[in-house]
Amino acid sequence: MLKNVIKILVILTTTGITAGLVSQRPKFSDNMALAQSKPKVVGSHSVICDLVETIAEDTVDLTCLIDGDQDPHTYSPTPSDRKAIEEARLILYGGYQLEPGLIKLIGARDPEAEAEETPQVAKIALYEQVVAEPVMAEHHEHHEHHEESKAENSQPKLEPDPHVWHNIEHTVAMVEYLESIFLQANPTASEQYLLNSNALTERLWQLDAWIKEQIATIPEGQRILVTTHNSLNYYVQAYYFDGYKTLQGLNADSPTASQVRELAAEIEQTEVPTIFAESTKSDRVINNVARAADVELSTTKLYVDGLGEANNYIEMMSHNTCAIVNGLGGKCQPFELNI
Which domain, by its residues, includes 311? Predict the structure, then answer.
């Protein structure tokens, strides 16, 4: 990982965008000149953007491409997005095919490449950098012919699950990685970066402990999560769930009655009181499944593909945890930082 950071720093410094390498004061005092002295950074995903904003604050000129309530799997770059990408000196994206539209655009098609760069831009698949051994999950289909493709291939295709941020340990690793880049690229702001990253890391570990405490209030036998897609594998593994079922395979607009009955029967066997919809997916099918299984569908949708309507990462994780805990019979206490 350090080798890749060094590659990135070479690009940043040789293109003359690293403010920390300029010891003299700016020659121009107007706002536009000051703005132009900041490195232009593009963040693909709302989680990445939140971390960059928290650590780097106003030392970079950050453009975030995908809103928190937008599905990154179906994202298509707009003209303004393309312009931001063309002007960027650092592009931070998730990787593992989280944002296939962006990955295709920037030419980072090799999932095994740890970091790709040209003389003008550094491109980093952040989630691939910090999680070298991802969970392998059933291939996500995000188009209308999902059922047809499954019929043609009875064996589910497995691919790396890109939703790594649902395990806070991985998010802490992202903070460390970003800190290392910014510290070496702009040493004049090192105190700012260290303070911000250390404070964020402390908050994240507090959040991690809080989540485990809340999950522990769910009655034994009910720690089984049922959602629309298999986007919470890392959450389920990190926070001691006994099972995880999804509607993967029932993503068509009109699944057959037998398909709904089959999944409903599986859910009934788990005896879970509640199942969960996701904010970036239609809840039509999961509503039908909930009725067939005679279970509640949570009125609180989970934020699984980004920050959703939360203001930041911590709020998103708190939102999801309390929705899950309360829905499965536990008692979720609000998250409070110990300062």
Answer: 207-327
